[in-house]
Fold this sequence. Notes:
19% strand; 9 strands
Amino acid sequence: MSKQHQGHTARKRFGQNFLHDPYVISSIVDAINPQPGENMVEIGPGLGALTEPVCDHIDKLTVVELDRDLAARLRSHPFIAAKLNIVEADAMKFDFSSLVDTVKPLRVFGNLPYNISTPLLFHLFSFAQHISDMHFMLQKEVVKRMAAAPGNKDYGRLSVMTQYHCKVLPVLEVPPGAFKPAPKVDSAVVRLLPYSDKPVKVISAQRLNQVCAQAFNQRRKTIRNSLKTLLSEKQIVDLGLNPDARAETLSLGDFAALADLVENTIGG
């Protein structure tokens, strides 16, 4: 597998770490379980460590790749080039709804560059209604934050917003040695299943994100202080919440109630 690394130096600015461990690769492909006829999309295929084995199972795969050299390599790939729809674009700005087939929702996967993983996830959440599932390799800490429950030290804005949009299922942990160059952190694969019916209703997902960002921005502050530019203490009390509570103790439902109150107060 390591031969495929010859001739391409990992670029720091793209956050490139290439997967090369055959056992880990086959475990990830098994978790994705690609089937013929599905609308599969890979973000950041890199040197094709996942692209090649996924293409063994399907006839067509869209890949979104920012690095021109890597896109060119895939375009001339001896085995899989004919199966690929190569989109040279920045996944952070790409309109994923443009890939939607009327009948088939997207199945998205990738080894996400760790330096942009959180904003990229938020970008993908805006297309959640077009996506049936996502499988991503991420920094293990990020996966812990996505899955964290209220009261946990890892619980934060990413936890609330991910759990608003998706069911979060950690799949497997991956050691640094599975990559070249080896990153300084452990990695993990997560499965995200976007909800067709969200677990809570909110008037505005953007408002929910704003309230979470403000509440978690200074974690040690009480919500009375962190949200004081948005809501009065009385408004918080009237919702049945303790203004002395800290953000990390509030549930998704609590944040939804706060967001709707803010939306009705200043956005409505």
